[in-house]
Amino acid sequence: MLSSLAACGAPARETVSTPPPDLGIDAPSDGGGQEPSDGGGTGEEEPPAQGPDIPAPDPADYAGMDENTPDGAAQAYRYYITLSLWVHQTGDRTTLDALAGPNRGGCDYLNKDIPDDPTPDTLWSRTEISDVEIDPLEGEYYDYEVIYNFNISAHTRDNTIAVERYEVEDLEYASLGGLIWEEDRWIVDGLTIEWGADVV
Q1: Rounded to an integer, what is the distance from CA 190 to the centroid of its chain?
Q2: Angular region, 14: left φ>0, alpha ψ -120 to 50, beta rest
Q3: Which domain CATH number covers 75?
Q4: Rounded-to-integer distance, Cα 12 and Cα 112, Å
Q5: Can you give the pLDDT of all 200 residues of the chain as single tens digits?
Q6: Sign of CA dihedral 115, 118, 120, 124
Q7: Intra-chain end-to-end CA distance of the chain, in Å
Q8: Which end of the chain is more exposed for a tag (fewer CB within 10 A), N or C?
């Protein structure tokens, strides 16, 4: 089980290691980051990746995420992670950034490979998420620490080394989010995540 959280502004680490005192990140990431453009273009061009064929996660599917309860924290974190995966497919991170705390290290580490100027060639192809486990626990540094383990389906990604895209098989993800209740909503203020085969 993941046991330490990176504040969403603590320095991210490249490899699994022992975290510094209090907070640290202990998992590699293949996520993405940075602000994308709005896609621009005219009505005659190819539609951008954030077209209607990949709908955004609907907050209504995460009942209670606006409530100051353990289940509300769990649903808010589940929504944040699902939204992050959607942003990897669309490049539209406007809502995602609003759900993270001001110190962004752990969150940015998850999302650092979202391109500045996304195109269909630089984003993930469509992928689906399936829940494995979600469990909110009272936290030492946060109001709640939420264990959220899930799988995502096979898809393709941009390869920054080679010219061609590459195939990614089904992946298991194990994550731990630190959530705080702030101004009548949940904020993801800490994050640790790892993925691969047999990580759950």
Answers
A1: 12
A2: alpha
A3: 3.10.450
A4: 10
A5: 555 666 564 433 333 322 323 323 333 334 444 444 444 444 444 444 444 478 999 999 999 999 999 999 999 999 999 999 999 999 888 899 889 887 666 787 788 878 778 887 788 899 999 999 999 999 988 999 999 999 999 998 876 655 677 788 898 999 999 999 999 999 999 999 998 877 76
A6: positive
A7: 8
A8: N
pTM for this predicted structure: 0.74
**Residue 133 belongs to domain spanning:** 6-12+57-196
Task: State which amino acid sits at residue 170.
Answer: D
